[in-house]
Amino acid sequence: MPSCDNCGSFVTEAYVRVFAPEGMETVRVCPSCEDKVRDGADIRTARSTRQQ
Length: 52
Description:
By secondary structure, the protein is an alpha+beta fold. 13% of the residues lie in helices and 15% in strands. It is built from one helix and two strands; from the N terminus they run αββ. A two-stranded antiparallel sheet has the order 1-2. A hairpin with a 2-residue loop joins strand 1 and strand 2.
């Protein structure tokens, strides 16, 4: 099962297919990550924590 490289949360294969960089089988950051966010093709530190 795929998981987030940053926080270890479960992500679906469809999420990985859409958001993982070409050739990777996991994502670097996911919606469950409180400290990182996607910024285009890169990731960056979140400016504030996310509301759950």
